[in-house]
Structures are given as C-alpha cells and as structure tokens.
C-alpha cells in the first residue's frame, strides 16, 4: 500500500539515508560505552593485580596493621599509616576549602552583581587549572619554610600541614562552583516569600537559601574530599616519603598516593611484591573514592529532582 | 517530485477512497504518561482546501497538528493512539518512516525558525536533505519558484546570499514558508504562523496562502478567529473538556461554523463569551 | 525608623540594628573566601617569577636534561608532552563528541542515557593516579605496549573523556530546539540534522571544551609518572612506542633535587608550563567570545 502512496525515488532516498543514520547510531553508542567499559577495566585490573599481592600478603595484616615497610628488607604490610596520612591531609584540605569555597559561593550567588559573577567564576576555574606539581613546588619552597616554620614550632621541611593547605586551595573551585550552582538553583520564590515575611537579607540567605541548597553543597564537599584523597603530586613533593603512623600534621608523612608515586619513581621490577603493592593501595584508594562519589552523585540527583 | 503526484493520483483511483480527503484522523489521541492531551479526534482534511483549527489556548490544537507529520515523535513522553491516514495509509504503521511523511507533509512553526545560513541555502535545504539531484539552473529555478509563491522573491532576489537573520520577522516567516514549499509537499501545516508578526506581514501571509491553496492542502492552527474566518474553507473547533482534555466539538464549512454553529460551546467561543 | 513607629520595644530595635550591620558586613566577610584562593595564587606566581625569571632562556627549551643544572633544558619533556597529549586528544575528542551527540540528540532510551551519564560522572571522579595504575597494568604490560607514548596517550585520553563529553553535551544543548525541529520537518534524518544543523553550530563550543580538557591533560603528572617513571630522556621522540617524559614530570624531577640551582630551574620550567597553559586557555576563551558574537547576528 505504501508503495503506491510514496514514490519509489522517495522510498529509496529514505532507505539510503536511514541506513547511514543507523550506522552512525551504532558508532555513537559504542563511543558512549567507552566510559562503562573503562570502569569495568579499572576494577578488573586493580583486582587482578591485587590478587598477586594478596597471594603473598595476608588481607588481615593489610587491613589492620599499623606498619608499612614495603620498601625495606623487613617487610610489614599494614596500610593504616598511609590511610591516616591521606585522611589528615584531606581533612586539612577540607578545613581550608569548605569555608572559603562556601563563602565564595554564597557571595557570588546572593550578593555579587550579576555582571561580575561570570568573570569571577572564570577566575575560580583558573585555580583548578594550575598543575598540581606547581602547587607542590609552592608548598615545599614557600609555605613550609617561610610560613609554617615561622609560625609553628616543630614543623619539618616536609609536613602534612603544607600538603593539606595546598590541596585545600586546589579544591576550593570544586566546593565553590558546585555550591554556587546549588544556591543559584534555589527558586526565587523561596527568597521572595521570606522577604515578604519581613526577614532581613542575612536571614534569607542563611536560614532559607542555604538550608534549601544543603544537599548540593554536601555533594560538592564530598566530591572535593575524594579529589583531595586522590591528589598525588602535592603529597609526593611536599609530604615526604617517610611512613609513620601519626596524627600530627607537623610531621612528614607518606599518603597512599605518595607511596604509589615513590614506587613508580623507583625501579621496582614488574612482578615483585613492591610493584604489586601499589595496586593493592590503589585498589583501596579506588574503592574509597568510588563509594564516596556514588554517594555524592545520589545526593546531587536528589537535589536536582526537588526543583 | 512530479512522479509523486502522478503516483498519488493512481493510488487514489485504486484505493477507491474518497478522493477529496487527503488526511484523516481516526480516533486520534495523544497522552503524556497517563494524562491525555487530546482524545477522540476524528477529522477529515479535504484536498486543496484550507482547513483551520481553532480553539482556546491549551486545548491541544498544536498537539493535533504535530500528529499529522509525526513531529510528536520527537517528544519522547508523547504517546500517540489511533490512526492518521494519509491517502488511506496509516502513517503511524510500522513500515512507514516518519522521514517519508515529512517530505510530503510540511510544517511552518509559530516563531520563524530559519536556519543560520543564507536565504538561498535555507530554501534549498529541504532539497539537499532529500537527496534530490538537480543542476544549478534547476535548483535556482526551484528556489525562485518557492520564494515567489511565498511572496518573498521581489524583496530578496538581489541578496540570496544574505544571511537569513538579516530579514525582518515577517520576511523570515515567509522564508520558512518558501523552504517548506521548495520540497513540493502535498500538505502544508501551519502552527499559528502569524501570531508573532505585525498586521502587514500577517496580511501578506494570509494572502499568499489563499493564492497557493488551489495547489496545496493547507491546515492552519490559529487562535485568531477573524483569521480563520478570513482565510479558511473549513473550520474545526477544539475545546477542552472538564478534565482539560482537548476534543473536537465541531467541524464544517467556515461560513456555517461562524454564522450557524451547531454546538453551544462553539457559539460561546466565537462570540467571545468563553476562551 | 519603622520599628519605633510600629511601637516595637528598645530590645527589638537592637536586634534589628545588629542584623542591619550583619547585612552590610556579610558580603565583605564572604568575599574573603575568594581572597584566600587569589592571594595564594598571586604569591605562588610571584615566587615562581622571582626565582625562575632569571633562568629563562632559549636553552631551557632547546636543551635536554643534564646533571649539571646550568646546562639542562626541557626539550624532551616539551616534545613528549606534544606527542602524548596530542595523541590523546586525537583519541579522546572524537570519542567525547560522539558520546555527547548520542546522549543529547540520538539516544531515545532514557534508561541507557541515565546509565551512560552515571558512568561518565563516576569516571570523572576517579583519582588520576589510578588511571596510571590501570594503564601500567593493562596497556604497558598486558598489551605489551611498553612504558611508551601510546600507553600514556590512551591513559590520558580515557582520563579526559568525561570533560570533553560534558563540554560537548553542553554545546549541543545550547542549540535552539526550533532549529532542530525545523530541519526534521523538512524530512531530514537524524544524521542529517546532526551534520547540517547540530555540528556546525556546536563545534566551536566543543572545541573550547576540548582545549580546556587538553590543558588539563598537559598539567597531569601522576598517571604519567606511574606509566613512564622518572627518566632522563636525551633524545627526541621518533615513534609512539618510545619512552618519554612530560613537562610536569620534568618539573617534579627538578623540584625533588635539593640544590638551589635546581630550584631555579624548576621555577623557570614552571613559567614555561604556565605560559603554555595560559595561551591555551586564552585561545579557548577567545574562541568562545568570537563564537558568541556570531550568534547575535
């Protein structure tokens, strides 16, 4: 029936064009699946390599031990020193980034003139664009000797505090940008209603808008935290390679990422337990950041749906 | 494209369908999720006539129009139920590709939406996209033809390379009409085409529609009743029911609808008491 | 004023006055957040400029690394960056654009779309050093590509994929739906709408995103450190299977050495790196600006 209603030339043209279209559909779909495949590959590789490691090292010692001497003759495989170092540097980073980033976000979203919002946002993005080796350099050659040594007694050349501070500056844009989006997305009606009830601006901003944007802000903090945990170069340059189980940020301490950097810099041959240890550490790092990221994405999804 | 018209005439002979009806909606309904936008639409569009669809805002006129050239396919949440027959063939059946339908049923939108290209490229876009091979002179002739029918040729003949955005709103809309005409469709759908234009452009467009109506089947959605009365041969009246679902309440020759409406709601709408 | 008129007591008036002060002071306090970041970067730039400014010279760019800091240069690192990041861009940009097109204009299945989006978001959050580990395991040893440029390029490509995809998707989303519907209404297929309407209009913005992603990749040291290690490279790359180093790694190399001369050297290298990044970002912004102007025709 359709053959009689639509001309043959038209049908042929449509068939030909749709064939081309369908081909590209498959190409684009394949391209889109690269992300998924990559994640599978990452999980697979990390587990695969870690298997070799855990053939020689007990999982219990790994997860509960407090000494990590993998690069020494007498090898101990407790990951806690690395984890606490990572936790301390990341916590310090958050202490820097959250107040600064949130303050900037509130300022941009609620107080700044619309005209300066865009350029300031660009400047903030610039902060994230500075290579981490540069931050590491600055931490080692300026922050530690000039600032910290003068102000705080007992601070070494390498110390966790400098690392934490620089990572903090690095992740300010994450907190600022995502929080600002969250605040900006709060419907104007909320503010208008509060003003109409006689509230002053500080009340509106801190008692109405901020709580409404809380889940978005929380998500930004979680993402900033995982970024801090994954930061390698700043820790490698300014944190030192000394493995200690300590909570004192004035000490030099090696984080999980810094350990991976150290082994990579050296000549651990393929197949040795030193080589394999970086995969075990990498696996732990991956699992922690992955879990946190999923939580953050869930939180963002909830926030986006609300409006 | 001339082949198409001949084949179409043949099919009309063969199918024995009412030769005057080009497009027919049979129990047509559209829903978004569980909410129906329009329901129980039964409508017959006569060949080479101008049919207007009128009704208050939000009653589903545009939704109905978009069913005819399967533009609702582009909205993933919209589900179409029922049938739309073009020359007796259900265009929603599985063997029919919407691309085919849109080549023979064209559309002009509410706001002029010319492509960011030259005037010439805009008009020839449909021809390029449909893979119609033409020589340079043939192409030029088709473009000129379309622009003349759209009452735009005289104003742009010296600057076909100019960017489409340099035209005024009324000219842009006529450009959109021209590019629709260039592929020589059988049916032209217009969704409130003059609502964003000034009175002079509106008059120009209404005039050109009357001029071309003897060769094209035209369906025009409008909320301007005077426009419907001026321009159309037939009028379909749509109204939302208590559940805000749009339905077709009356259909007939324009003169009758406006002088002796049969449904009270039509009378209320036309006399301005409602909507 | 209103408080006295409305008969509010003296206590109320004090609270209102306190809030009024807060209102004035808040923006100033809040902008201190910006201050911390900007002050840090400013002092960073000044430090780098003062310690490294004198060491800047053409030999820095044309010479190979050398144990003697006076003779050392970053030639191999610069070339290594060009080869590695260039190759990764060739892989990543088409992939990212294709994925973005699928997510915005092609996919009709909401479930698949959401799934892909979640995966891209997850990929974006994975620490860069983990990418290096996987590259080392899978590409270098698993596929036998060696600690080579191509292994580094694939790793960087996959790392920057989310950035490029998101930027490209944003670019497509700015295209007015009216144009796309107009093209469909004339009988165009999805491919034709993509080719004639979407790509021409979105491409400048996509390129801006690509440039920004590339600048991010240029600054990445951790994954390359894992894949390539720290090397003394004293020749130009001649094939994608060569061993290599990149600029941020060369900087890391020099920063790790205690001698003052190396500190100056690393500062100078940082200046070079930052200048390159600055010009790339400026190019991206200039592109975006020129594109914005074209739209308002």
Structural topology:
The complex is a heterotrimer of chains A (307), B (275) and C (297).
Chain A: H1 2-5, H2 8-56, H3 59-64, H4 80-111, H5 114-129, H6 132-151, H7 160-184, H8 188-196, H9 201-212, H10 214-229, H11 233-238, H12 256-265, H13 273-306
Helix pairs in contact in A: 2-13, 4-7, 4-10, 5-7, 6-7, 7-10, 8-9, 10-13, 12-13
Chain B: H1 2-15, E1 21-32, E2 35-46, E3 50-54, H2 61-68, E4 78-86, E5 89-90, H3 98-104, E6 105-108, H4 119-129, H5 136-149, H6 153-156, H7 169-182, E7 187-191, H8 199-212, E8 217-221, H9 225-231, E9 234-240, E10 246-253, H10 254-259, H11 264-270
Parallel strand pairs in B: 3-8, 3-9, 6-7, 7-8
Antiparallel strand pairs in B: 1-2, 1-4, 4-5, 9-10
Chain C: H1 2-5, H2 10-52, H3 58-62, H4 75-106, H5 110-125, H6 128-142, H7 149-173, H8 177-185, H9 190-218, H10 222-228, H11 247-255, H12 260-295
Helix pairs in contact in C: 2-12, 4-7, 4-9, 4-11, 5-7, 6-7, 6-10, 7-9, 7-10, 8-9, 9-12, 11-12
Written overview of the protein:
The complex is a heterotrimer of chains A (307), B (275) and C (297). Chain A has 307 residues and is mostly helical. Chain A folds into two domains: 2-56; 80-306, MetI-like fold (Orthogonal Bundle). Chain A is 78% helix and 0% strand. Chain A has helices at 2-5, 8-56, 59-64, 80-111, 114-129, 132-151, 160-184, 188-196, 201-212, 214-229, 233-238, 256-265, 273-306. The longest helix of chain A has 49 residues, at 8-56. Chain B is globular and about 55 Å long. Chain C is globular, with a radius of gyration of 26 Å. With 297 residues, chain C is mainly α. Chain C has two domains: 2-55; 61-295, Orthogonal Bundle (MetI-like fold). Chain C has helices spanning 2-5, 10-52, 58-62, 75-106, 110-125, 128-142, 149-173, 177-185, 190-218, 222-228, 247-255, 260-295. The chains are: A mainly alpha (307), B alpha/beta (275), C mainly alpha (297). Chains in contact: A-B, A-C, B-C. At the A-C interface, α2, α4, α5, α6 and α7 of A face α2, α4, α5, α6 and α7 of C.
């Amino acid at each position: 029936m359709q053959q009689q209603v639509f001309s043959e030339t038209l049908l042929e043209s449509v068939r030909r064009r749709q064939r081309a279209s369908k081909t590209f559909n498959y190409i684009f779909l394949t391209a889109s699946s690269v992300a998924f495949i990559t994640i599978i590959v990452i999980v697979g590789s990390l587990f695969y390599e870690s298997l070799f490691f855990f053939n020689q090292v007990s999982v219990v010692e790994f997860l509960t031990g407090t000494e990590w001497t993998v690069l020494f003759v007498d090898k101990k495989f407790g990951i806690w020193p690395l984890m606490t170092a990572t936790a301390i540097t990341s916590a310090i980073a958050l202490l820097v980034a959250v107040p600064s980033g949130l303050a900037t976000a509130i300022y941009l979203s609620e107080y700044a003139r619309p005209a300066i919002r865009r350029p300031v946002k660009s400047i903030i993005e610039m902060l994230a664009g500075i290579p981490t080796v540069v931050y590491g350099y600055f931490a080692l050659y300026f922050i530690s000797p000039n600032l910290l040594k003068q102000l705080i007694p007992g601070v070494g050349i390498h110390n966790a505090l400098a690392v934490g501070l620089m990572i903090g500056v690095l992740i300010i844009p994450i907190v600022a940008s995502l929080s600002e989006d969250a605040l900006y997305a709060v419907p104007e009606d909320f503010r208008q209603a509060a003003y109409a009830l006689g509230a002053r601006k500080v009340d509106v901003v801190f008692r109405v808008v901020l709580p409404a944007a809380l889940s978005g802000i929380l998500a930004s903090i979680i993402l900033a935290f995982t970024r801090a945990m994954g930061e390698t170069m700043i820790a490698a340059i300014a944190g030192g390679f000394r493995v200690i189980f300590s909570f004192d940020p004035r000490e030099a301490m090696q984080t999980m990422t810094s350990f991976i950097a150290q082994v990579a810099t050296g000549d651990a041959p393929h197949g040795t337990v030193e080589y394999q240890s970086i995969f075990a550490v990498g696996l732990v790092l991956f699992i922690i950041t992955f879990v946190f990221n999923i939580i953050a994405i869930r939180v963002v999804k909830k926030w986006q749906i609300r409006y | 494209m001339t082949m198409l018209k001949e084949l179409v005439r043949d099919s009309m002979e063969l199918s024995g369908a009412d030769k005057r009806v080009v497009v027919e909606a049979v129990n047509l309904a559209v829903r978004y999720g569980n909410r129906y936008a329009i329901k129980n639409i039964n409508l017959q569009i006569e060949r080479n006539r101008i049919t207007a669809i009128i009704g208050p805002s939000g009653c589903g006129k545009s939704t109905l129009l978009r069913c005819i050239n399967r533009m609702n396919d582009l909205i993933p949440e919209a589900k179409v139920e029922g049938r739309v027959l073009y020359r007796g063939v259900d265009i929603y059946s599985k063997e029919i590709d919407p691309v085919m339908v849109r080549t023979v049923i064209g559309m002009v939108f509410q706001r002029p939406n010319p492509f960011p290209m030259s005037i010439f490229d805009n008009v020839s876009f449909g021809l390029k996209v449909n893979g119609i091979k033409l020589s340079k002179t043939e192409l030029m002739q088709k473009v000129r033809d379309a622009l003349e029918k759209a009452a735009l040729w005289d104003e742009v003949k010296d600057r076909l390379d100019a960017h489409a955005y340099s035209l005024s709103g009324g000219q842009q809309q006529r450009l959109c009409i021209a590019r629709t005409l260039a592929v020589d469709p059988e049916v032209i759908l217009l969704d409130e085409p003059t609502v964003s234009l000034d009175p002079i452009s509106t008059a120009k467009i209404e005039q050109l529609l009357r001029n071309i109506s003897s060769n094209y089947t035209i369906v025009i959605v409008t909320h301007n009743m005077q426009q419907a009365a001026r321009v159309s041969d037939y009028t379909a009246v749509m109204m939302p029911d208590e559940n805000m679902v749009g339905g077709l309440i009356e259909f007939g020759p324009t003169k009758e609808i406006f002088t002796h409406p049969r449904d009270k709601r039509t009378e209320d709408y036309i006399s301005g008491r409602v909507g | 004023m209103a408080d006295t008129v409305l008969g509010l007591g003296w206590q109320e008036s004090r609270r209102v006055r306190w809030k009024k002060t807060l209102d004035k002071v808040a923006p100033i306090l809040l902008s201190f957040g910006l201050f911390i970041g900007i002050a840090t970067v400013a002092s960073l730039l000044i430090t780098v400029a003062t310690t490294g400014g004198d060491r800047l010279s053409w030999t820095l760019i044309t010479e190979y690394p050398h144990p003697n800091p006076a003779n050392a240069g970053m030639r191999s690192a610069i070339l290594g960056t060009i080869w590695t990041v260039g190759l990764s861009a060739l892989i990543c940009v088409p992939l990212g654009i294709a994925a973005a097109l699928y997510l915005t204009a092609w996919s009709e299945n909401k479930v698949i779309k959401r799934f892909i989006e979640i995966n891209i978001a997850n990929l974006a959050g994975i620490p860069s050093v983990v990418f290096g580990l996987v590259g080392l395991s899978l590409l270098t040893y698993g596929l036998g590509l060696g600690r080579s440029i191509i292994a580094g390029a694939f790793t960087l490509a996959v790392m920057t994929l989310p950035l490029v995809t998101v930027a490209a998707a944003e670019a497509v989303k700015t295209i007015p739906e009216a144009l796309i519907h107009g093209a469909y209404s004339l009988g165009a297929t999805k491919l034709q709408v993509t080719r004639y309407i979407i790509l021409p209009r979105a491409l400048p913005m996509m390129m801006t995103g690509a440039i920004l992603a590339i600048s991010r990749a240029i600054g990445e040291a951790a994954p390359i450190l894992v894949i390539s290690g720290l090397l003394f490279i004293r020749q130009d790359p001649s094939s994608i299977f060569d061993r290599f180093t990149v600029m941020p790694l060369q900087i890391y190399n020099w920063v790790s050495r205690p001698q003052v001369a190396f500190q100056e050297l690393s500062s100078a290298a940082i200046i070079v790196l930052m200048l390159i990044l600055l010009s790339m970002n400026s190019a991206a912004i200039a592109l975006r600006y020129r594109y914005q102007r074209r739209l308002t025709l």
